[in-house]
Structure prediction request, 164 residues.
Amino acid sequence: MCTPIDPFTVAQKAVTSAQGIYTMMENKQNAKYRIQASISNAQNAANEALRQRQLGIENARKEKLEGMKESGKLAAKNASNGFDIYSDTNNYNMQSITDSANAQAQEVDKKYNRVADDYYNRANEYLRGANQYRKQYNSSVWDEAFAVLGSTNNVAKNWYSKKE
Prediction:
């Protein structure tokens, strides 16, 4: 004859199972919060990347305008001093100033694009994190809970069957 199962053991197992379910539900809520935070961080990083790209475009445009302004100042200065502004030397000097400004504008644009790319990479990292949290969130709490309760159910069945 088998020894009867202590009701205290069954109750203890049930309480432990309930605590496990509560912990799993808390973990699920925590995963949900982390999903939302990761998505929000990804959106913020993507927005900052777009802002950096726009700043790069604007600052590159300013560099080009500064070059055109300097070229125009040189032409005005040479004209006021009586030089032919359409001579090859003056054209070469103005073109040199414009080319230099364009090169600086490209460097400025590249710098901002690198920063923007870093923000895009961060956004992708946040999204990968959100996907990991989503996997945690989608793992069924009840599947895990019933796995724990399954052993309690077996204990209860054995206890009742031996009582008869």
